[in-house]
Each structure stands twice: as structure tokens, then as C-alpha cells.
Amino acid sequence: MNGEEFKVRGRQMVDYIVKYLEEIETRRVTPGIEPGYLSNLIPTYPPHEAEPWEDVMKDVEEKIMVGMTHWQHPRFHAYFPAGNSYPSILADMLSDAIGCVGFSWAAGPACTELETIVLDWLGKMVGLPDTFLSHTEGSQGGGVIQSSASECVLDCLLAARTQAVRSLKAKYGYDCEETTLLSKLMAYCSKEAHSCVEKAAMIGFVKLRILEPDSNNELRGHILLDAMEEDRKNGLHPFFVCTTLGTTGCCAFDRVDEIGPICQDTGAWLHVDASYAGNAFICPEFRYLMKGIEFADSFNFNPNKWMLVNFDCSTMWVKSRFKLTQALVVDPLYLQHSYSESAIDYRHWGIPLSRRFRALKLWFVIRSYGVSGLQEYIRNHCRLAKLFEQLVREDHKFKVMNDVKVGLV
Question: Count of CB atoms within 10 A of residue 184's CB?
């Protein structure tokens, strides 16, 4: 396919995408197929000769679309929302054309610098303390885009683990085996926390204590403190606490204001996972739900859930980028460059080396809608949630099971 044909096929694809999104309600939300359906529709061997583009697109509609769960469908109510918008799609199109693998500043200067800038924008939009921003005088913090909240939680747990092992080595002696020290580490989360916390603990080879929340499904300070004191008596070392603002099951909000001072006193790393509800914090009236955020060591939310940005785009901030990178730096000579000491290299901020130019779609969306437009989008969802809650309460056949604070009923 040359440039001229790409112009034609590109216009056709844009038309197809617009038609798909505008007529999506005519499709089934979930497909009427069973596992293995596609094996009967696609040949066992790849084509030896090139096939006409028309045949490819015909198969998209007849073989792929019939097997899709349509996440953008107005009647799709599973999991959490999957954000999307035309500016975000266009940004991904441009990112794919540029083809940058932005693992370091040298590999993509604009890719790196735009990510730093838009994460500062977004941090200001949700009201994060200046200590989480890159361009605040004296700040050691900063933001980064990851592929998912699961990756954010894992990265922060690994950073906390590195700090805890260093602390324990100073206490027990530097000749002490790390495997012995790892057996003493204890992490904490609520029963309402996402399963990714459990997976992170499993990957990190540390113990995880899953705590029972209160009657409002909120993890409270006294619950955590009692568990920590018990574990310390048993020779364990509390090192990481993952709180949730907007839990998966019922959108409950852990009491970060109570838990934060406990983590500060014990030296445990406090992570705040606000994957869904964190988007609402761009509206000042919802920021009371993040009270105590100044105690956090790290924070994440997913614009790809509720801010008109398509997957993948999970944003994460840390108070100390040095503590984060100490756990993740591997620095071979072939990846170093002349600005390594003065520029951010995001390859040190997560597990993958390769990184897409995801900052483009955040930049496109924020500029296309403006902060006020995104706020109105969130507020409208929350208004609709309260309306739906009212209708449910008026019908004796149903019962509202959560305290509706943002968009989940």
C-alpha cells in the first residue's frame, strides 16, 4: 500500500469508524458465539499472496465484528466505562504514524517532554499537591503514563519493597539474605480493593493481608492500625498499603485521611488507586473524597475509563521519582545518552522498555474539550447516576446497594 492508496483507504476507514460508532446501538452488545468460533472462519494457514483490501474489510465485518463485545454500546454496563472520543482516536492515528518507541529522552524528546507536561496538567486538574508535579520548584515527584492500573500498583509495590529491604538490611545487617527479609514484609489492602493488588503481592513475593472494611465498605484507620500492630508482634514488617478511592464493587472510598498518618508513622508506602473515580476529581466539588491525599507516596487513575481518552492510558504520580526508579533501573551502555543525567528517561519508571506516544491523546483530548468541557461531561454522568438512583429507589422491586457519590449505582 503506497501513500496514494493509503489516502483512499484511510478515508474509507474513517467513514467505517464513524458509521460504527454512530450506529453501534443497532448491534448486539455481546456476541452470540462460543469459544473457538473464529477458527472455523479463518484459514489455518496465512495467505501466500497478497489479498485485496476489500476482502480484508469484508472479513472485518463478517468475521470479526460478529465476535466483538461492543464496549462503546449505550447498553454496555459491565465492568467500568471504556472512554473514547474522536480526538483521542486521531491522536492514536498520529502516534502510530510517527512510530516512536519513546523509552528515553533521546529516543523521543517531544514524546518524553509532552508526557511530563500533560501529567503536570492533569495533576493540577485533579488537585494533586505540588509535590507530585515535575515542574514545581524543589519537587522530587512527577507523573508517568502506564498501560494499566495493575501496572501502577505493581510498580509502586516494587518501589516500596526496595525501600523496605534497604531499611531492614540496615537493621539486621547487610549480609542478611534478601529472601529472608522478603518473608518479613507485609502489604495491606481492603477486601474491596481490586484483584491487581493481590497479583502485585504475588509477583513481588510478599505477604498481603486483605482487611475487612467497615459497614460502608471503607477501609478505616483503626482497622489498619490493629492489623499492623498484630503483625509487628509476630515479627513482620508493614511496608505497603494500597487504598482505593472508588472501589470496584461499590465505588466506596477508603479513608485516606485516617490511613495516611498511620503510614507516615510506620514508614509504610501509601498508594492510592483511584482508577475510575479519580476522573471525577477534575471537578472541585468531588475532591473532598480524596481528603488526605497529601499523605500518599503515589497515586493513579485511568483517563481511559471516564475522561474521553481511549485505552490504554493509566496515569500515575509519585512523590519521589528517585525511590521509584531505584527499584526499576537497569542501565546498559547501549541505552545511555548524553542527556541521561539531566532529562527524564521513562524506561526507568516502569517495567516495559518500549513505550508508545500516549501523551498525544491526553494532549489532544484536553485541548479539544478544555477542562470545562471535561468537567461538564463528568458532572452530567453524575447527574444521570443520581437520577437513576432515584428511579431505582421508587421501584420496590430493586434496592440500591451503595452510597452513590459519583457515577456508579
Answer: 19
DSSP 63: I
Q: How far is CA 352 from the centre of its chain?
A: 15
Per-residue model confidence as pLDDT tens digits over 7-65? 999 999 999 999 999 999 999 999 999 999 999 999 999 999 999 999 999 999 999 99
Which residues, other chains included, contact 104 with Cβ-Cβ below 8 Å and sequence gap of 6+? 112, 335, 337, 340, 343, 345, 346, 347
Query: Hey, what long-range contacts does 265-269 have (CB within 8 A, 24 or more apart)?
Result: 266/228, 266/238, 267/167, 267/239, 268/160, 268/188, 268/228, 268/238, 268/239, 268/240, 268/241, 269/156, 269/157, 269/159, 269/160, 269/163, 269/164, 269/239, 269/240, 269/241, 269/297, 269/298
- Strands 185-190 and 237-244, by their bridges, are parallel
Label residues 99-124 b or e (16+ Cβ within 10 Å = b).
ebebbbbbbbeebbebbbbbbbbbbe
Supply 117's cell numbers.
507536561
Query: Is the backbone peptide bond immediately before 312 cis, with ω within 30 degrees of 0?
Result: yes
- Which residues share a beta bridge with 316? 144, 300
Angle at 180 between CA 175 and CA 186, to 5 degrees: 130
Question: How much is the pTM?
Answer: 0.94
| Bridge partners (DSSP) listed for residue 298 | 271, 318
Phi-psi region of 292 (alpha: psi -120 to 50; beta: other; left: phi over 0): left
Beta bridge partners of 241: 188, 270
pLDDT tens-digit series, residues 233-287: 999 999 999 999 999 999 999 999 999 999 999 999 999 999 999 999 999 999 9
Strand order in the sheet with 314-318: 142-146, 314-318, 298-301, 269-273, 237-244, 185-190, 207-211
